[in-house]
Design goal:
Structural class: alpha/beta
Strand order of the largest sheet: 1-2-3-4-5-6-7-8
Helix content: 40-55%
CATH superfamily: Phosphoenolpyruvate-binding domains
Radius of gyration: 19 Å
Largest sheet: 8 strands, parallel, barrel
Number of strands: 8
CATH topology: TIM Barrel
Strand content: 5-15%
Number of helices: 13
Shape: globular
Distance between the termini: 27 Å
CATH architecture: Alpha-Beta Barrel
CATH class: Alpha Beta
Oligomer: single chain
Order of helices and strands: HEHEHEHEHHHEHHEHHEHEH
Number of domains: 1
């Protein structure tokens, strides 16, 4: 799928499947090919890859037809434009709570390279654009996917207004921050967390936007349950977590078989 096809699928309610890619290594890029993925999620909020490395990763994934959607460090339209210029197919704004932040995201993804007063005029009234400019912007930004992280109680309280902004393609739940905002840190099976997730899914689907959650904890059964509850933006696990879990399981099996069992460390926390 390309970026435009992903955008269309998200609005239509069709599911698109991705995973978090953190490792800037050629072999990791090739291993993600042919696994049923539609896109990759690259995070620069919590993972310290620099701009040059990020651009290399984006270009590499583009080369194997896996559009990279990048979460920027903060909801800044200039950061969004930088990653799009570097080869990203989409942008995720973290911890969004205000309509102005959604407008900034849409401005970067729908109207790049417009800035300043000219951009605000276009956001207020798209019909104010000259036909030639409107056609140019539509073609240039057709593949840019605009996603907002919903990670707090205030965001849920303001959700209808956030979803009403034209040009937003999807919302993605940040489970760790949301659980903390709810006062139940990392209790992902808590009824309050489950209710909040389903509220977000329902509102997004009603508004014709995609909805998802970065599912890095728990089991496949809960992930499937969320998909059946309305999620259609699937971000499953992460390369480092999948590697860690598989390696841990294999080494544990080998130790049990040879009587070499010993106490292992606790699971690493991934935010």
């Amino acid at each position: 799928m390309n970026g435009q096809q992903i955008r269309q699928a998200l609005h239509a309610g069709d599911r698109v499947y991705g995973t978090l890619a953190s490792a800037p290594a050629t072999l990791w890029v090739n291993m993600n090919k042919g696994n049923g993925l539609d896109f990759v999620f690259i995070d620069t909020e919590h993972i310290p890859n620099d701009r040059q490395t990020l651009s290399w990763m984006c270009q590499a994934y583009q080369a194997i037809d896996l559009p990279p959607i990048v979460r920027v460090p903060n909801p800044d339209p200039y950061e969004a434009c930088k990653v799009l210029d570097g080869g990203a197919s989409g942008v995720i704004f973290p911890y969004v709570e205000e309509v102005s932040q959604i407008r900034d995201l849409v401005g970067a993804c729908r109207y790049r390279p417009l800035k300043g007063t000219r951009l605000q005029q276009a956001l207020d009234d798209p019909e104010s654009l000259e036909p030639e400019l409107a056609a140019y912007l539509a073609e240039r930004n057709a593949h840019s996917i605009a996603v907002a992280n919903i990670e707090s109680v205030p965001a849920i309280e303001n959700l209808d207004a956030l979803l009403a902004v034209d040009g937003l393609d999807a919302v993605l739940i940040g489970p760790h921050d949301l659980s903390c905002s709810l006062g139940i840190p990392e209790e992902y099976e808590h009824p309050s967390f489950d209710e909040a997730v389903r509220t977000i899914f329902t509102a997004a689907r009603k508004a014709g936007k995609g909805a998802g959650i970065h599912f890095f904890s728990g089991g496949i059964a809960q992930e499937i349950d969320f998909l059946q509850a309305g999620a259609n933006l699937v971000v499953h696990g992460a390369d480092v977590l999948i590697y860690k879990h598989a390696l841990s399981q294999d080494i544990t099996t080998l130790r049990k078989a040879t009587g070499d069992e010993r106490q292992t460390g606790s699971e690493d926390a991934i935010i």
